[in-house]
Amino acid sequence: MNRKGKSSFLPKNRDNRVFLTPNDMLRLIGENVENGIYTFQKATELAKQNGMDLVVVSNKAVPPVYTIVEYAKYEYKKKKKDKITKKNSIKGGLKEIKFRTTIEEGDLLNKAERAKKFLQQGYKIKLYIMYIGRTIVFQDIGKKLLDRFIEVVEEYISDRVEKRVGKRKIVILSPRKINSNA
Question: Which end of the chain offers a freer environment for a tag, N or C, measured as fewer CB atoms within 10 Å?
Answer without folding.
Answer: C
